[in-house]
Amino acid sequence: MIGGKSLQQNLLPRCLDIAIEEDISFREGLPLDYLHYMGLAHSDVENPKRDEFIKKITSLMTTMIQNYSPVDAACDQMGKQVIIDSLPPVLTDVEKSCSIHGHGEKWDDVRKCVKGNMEVEPDTMVKLIRKGCLRLVREDDSVCIYHNLENARVYHGREPQFIEISPELAPAVEFLLHSYPEYVSVDSLPSPSVDENVEIASVLYDKGLLITGEPLESVHVDDSDDDDNCVTNDDDNF
User: Is 50 exceeded by the pLDDT of residue 236?
Assistant: First the structure.
């Protein structure tokens, strides 16, 4: 029950805050004479006022739990802590070859260019690299994706790693979570537009959270360039 205890400790203070904010009953003052019949010295004394006071408190507590409990939000905070505490996943060679972990942009000192530039396209097939490697959490007016891909091997050796996204892109992340372990095309994500689908997929891919159905091909500026898969730094041309 340690987990259940922690969940309730997280849930109840927020539950009370919401109830006080939204329901005037939780902001009413206490009876002026309540100390005359409440407390240890009065616990064995029969008193209609005492009975009414306890009934009112019980009713408020029931209303608070039934109507103002942000259970999902509390569970997300628990899940966020699990992500913060966990180690990054161990990836297979195949997973590395189909993700940023086996590719990524690198500067070539010899040819003076960027190698390994990858781009996600609308028809790219993708899935999360692990379902348990991220948690979607609403915090105030923003939505954050907490992940463990960049966690240190030393416990809490790094600050919590997260990506802040617009609320409009959150359904795309939810879709990937619910689709796992199946691959889905980027253009099938439920964002407002294809461009936004590519945007969120690219952000997740660049952070190492997505794996593609096949290794992505490197892109380069000029197909006629002798240095294949190499993006030249324009500053070197002057």
Answer: no
Total-model pTM: 0.73
- Residue partners of 108: CB distance under 8 A and separation at least 6: 114, 115, 230
Of 74-78, 158-162, 178-182, 231-235, the poorest mean pLDDT is in: 231-235
Q: Which CATH class is domain 76-212?
A: alpha beta
Q: Where in the chain is the domain with CATH 1.10.10.1500?
A: 2-69
If you classify domain 2-69 with CATH, what class do you get? Answer: mainly alpha
How distant is the alpha carbon of residue 21 from its chain centre? 26
